[in-house]
Design goal:
about 180 residues; globular
Length: about 180
Amino acid sequence: MTDVLAGEGFGIRRARPEDVAFWAGLAGHEEVEPFMAAVSERDEEELLEAIRLSDDQPAHHGRFVVEADGERAGVMAFDVENRRSRIVYLHAIMLEPRFRGRGLAMAATRLLVRHLVFELDYHRVQLEVYAFNERALRHFERAGFVREGVRRKAYRRHGEWVDGINYGIVREDLEA
């Protein structure tokens, strides 16, 4: 990957060890944490290891920081799901709440997805969202992802069983 994926007024770069405190703080933010997957990396040691893996295997694992207005604005991550079929799993899309409402998350998601498909040669990008996360559901549908199914009562979150909504986007969707 180039050092920075440049968007209009923002950039996406590989996370570095000095980003760990920002990432952990964002994951624990009261407006972000309730929507995070329970298994998401939050601990600083876990995050450092994930960043090392992202550096060691950049085509198969990615931990990124979104920057806007000269500061960290959010984070994004991906991991290879199936190398033979060229499927990648997108996750940990988090934006600092004060950067919301200006299209930054949408632009950053679209830029990273295009990078994954056209530069890293993945055929499919997939993800899963808790059904109660209405903002994320709207976000990924507007970003071009196709809702593919529901994993009924698949996750125990906040004391109750919740559905997971599966989304995917394939190369042909982006070429159209």
